[in-house]
Amino acid sequence: MERPEGTLAVLLGISQLVYLVAIATLGVRVLLRARRTRELPEGLLSLHLLLCCSLGYLLLVVVLSAAQTPGSLPVGVVAWLVALGHLASSVGVWAGYGLADPLDVAVAYWLTLFPSPAYARLVTRAGSASP
After folding, report:
1. pTM score, two decimals?
2. Which of 113, 91, 115, 111 is nearest to 103 (CA)?
3. How many CA atoms within 13 Å lie on the side-chain side of 28?
């Protein structure tokens, strides 16, 4: 696979930076809320955002990009860093889906980010109407 060059490379780099800053910021905010409320869904969501979407992703992107340049990193270092990135991502994925299923994750994100009695009533009604 060829590396992008010129303007495309700059745009891709900027988009990756914006993504990482946004996800890390959201992860820290949810972590602070989890610390304040001591609720499990907020704790799991913050682990998912910080480990899978931020740390693991960043580590894998940087290491695999550097590994494409011959002689930049020893093979053993690349292997350990890739394993660490996969471990962080795997734990983050487990935390994100530790809530049971994707619908639970979506509802937990919604209620964590937009807490309101109206939303809680809507979700409760929808949940009680399901078979």
Report:
1. 0.63
2. 111
3. 7
106 token code pair: 């979506």
Distances (CA, A) of 128 to 40, 122, 125: 22, 10, 5
Tell me if residue 73 falls in helix, strand or coil. Answer: coil
**How much is the average pLDDT of 59-86?**
83
Q: Is the pLDDT of residue 131 over 50?
A: no
Q: Is 17 left (phi over 0), alpha (psi -120 to 50) or beta?
A: alpha
Separation CA 96–CA 48 (nearest Å) = 5
For 110-126, letters b (16+ CB in 10 Å) and e give ebbeeeeeeeeeeeeee
Whole-angstrom distance, CA of residue 71 vs CA of residue 62: 15
Residues 96-119: tens digit of each pLDDT: 666 555 566 666 666 666 666 665
